[in-house]
Amino acid sequence: MSNEVGKNKTLKMVVAGTVAVVVIGLSGAGVYAMSVKNQVAKWDNKIYQGVKVNDVDLSGKTKEEAVKLLEDSFSNTIKQKKLIVKALDQNFELDYSNLNPQFNVQEMAQKAIEEGKNLSLFQKNNIIKNGTNKNLPLEFKYDDSKIKAFEQQIESKINQDPVNAKISISGGNISITDDQTGRKVNTEQLDKLIKTNINGKIEQQTVVQAPIEEVKPKYPKSELAKIDGKISTFSTSFATSNPGRSANVTLASNFINAKVLMPGDTFSYNEAVGERTTARGFKDAAIFVGDKVEQGVGGGICQVSTTLYRAAMRAGIRSTERSNHSMPTSYSDVGLDATVYWGSLDYKFKNTYNFPIYIESYTSNKNVYVNFYGNIAGMGGKTYELFADTLAKYDPTISKVEDSSIMEGQTQWDKHPVTGYKVQSYLVTYQNGKEIARENIATDNYQKVNGVMRVGTKKATPPPVTQTQTTQDPAATQATATPTVATTGTNQ
Name one Pfam family in it (predicted). Predict the structure, then answer.
């Protein structure tokens, strides 16, 4: 029995010891947990070990300290950076300070302070002791509104317009000046290069090469040199024109003189002559308005467009836009004219040759001359002539209206009669003087205008009767007056 008592004592002692150990262990764990908690709490407002932003170590920093460090490292430093554009032998610097550069420092400092704060107590403690490997990226942005001005600065220094060769012809003698190639910055490519290379990398200096292109002159000497002689000519007379109309013909002729058309170019008469205004020197003269002749600014310039049309057709250059007058003109056969009106009717033609065309136009002795110069060999021995056949003729009627305000026997036109026509024009091609082709060009209609004549019905008033008496003859003598006779006239 004594042995059993001894065993129970021993068991109790073991249990008591075990309980003591457990109690001590639990007490120690609680102390450790409290210690860890206290240690982690010290980092509540600090960034954990190993947390970086753009490779800048922010370990142990408060948010305010992190913001200041990032501002000093990036926001302030980036303003000292420059982007260099090389263009030919010049360097152009774009200061980042002009771009209002910005990093999202506040946002990333907040993210840094929050990094790991959502973990368990012991995970946090582990990061505090051993650190982490977290590198947060900063975002960089800037105001690109200043870039355009920078690009324009480069363009102003680098761009150089090409110099066209110039051709002049005097008395058939041809002279041509030299041309010069220009250069131009490719603004679209430069803009992409600049914006692609603007970045927030503090240590990196960026250098870009400006894309520069050659600009060829539109009128190179090598092309103008193909013009070696006269390929057509035409002239019309304005001998009966009054001073205003004569001035308009001369002015319009001057506007189209010395025009050069490269292959594929289109000539516009309205574009060359411009708007007909008194401010530009045009005078009032007769123009067609419907079926009437009225005064209008620029009257007479259609004679120049008609002369140009005839010269162009003689050079084998077809029209892309052309209209005939509403009524026949005094300076051109029907079907062979070209009328224009600012804003609605134009005369245009395209240079379909593989060599340039030079237009010479001038007036002399009340004649307007238009000459076309080009490449003689390029004409292939061909010449051209424009003709027109009358398909129909429309005779006008004349109606007479009695008018008591006009003396009997006199007449006056209200509207002059004009004969109408329908004509077909065609271009004949000659090869070394022999006809080889005939081409229909246009069918034109010219309206007839019925005449209206006023016939006078007003009778002449006889003069008063005068009686004479003498002492020698008591019989009174009556003198009879002879009425005046009206003559027939017209108001033209």
Answer: PG_binding_4
Q: State which H helix or E strand residue 428 sits in.
A: strand 420-431
Q: How far is CA 26 from CA 14, 21, 258, 338, in A?
A: 18, 8, 110, 116
**How far, in Å, CA of 145 to CA of 151, rounded?**
11
Separation CA 53–CA 74 (nearest Å): 11
The rounded distance, in Å, linking the Cα atoms of 53 and 109 is 8
User: What 8-state DSSP symbol labels residue 389?
Assistant: E
Instruction: Say yes or no to pLDDT of 281 above 90.
Output: yes
Tokens 């302070």, located at residue: 113
Q: What is the pLDDT of residues 87-140, one digit of tens each?
A: 999 999 999 999 999 999 999 999 999 988 898 888 888 888 888 899 999 999
**What is this structure's pTM?**
0.71
Q: What 8-state DSSP symbol labels residue 204? A: P
**Residue spans per domain, the chain:** 41-142, 145-219, 226-456
| CA 113 vs CA 101, 118, 125: distances in Å | 24, 11, 15
Shortest CA distance to 227 belongs to which of 173, 282, 289, 298?
Answer: 173
List residues bridging with 371 in a β-sheet. Answer: 233, 360
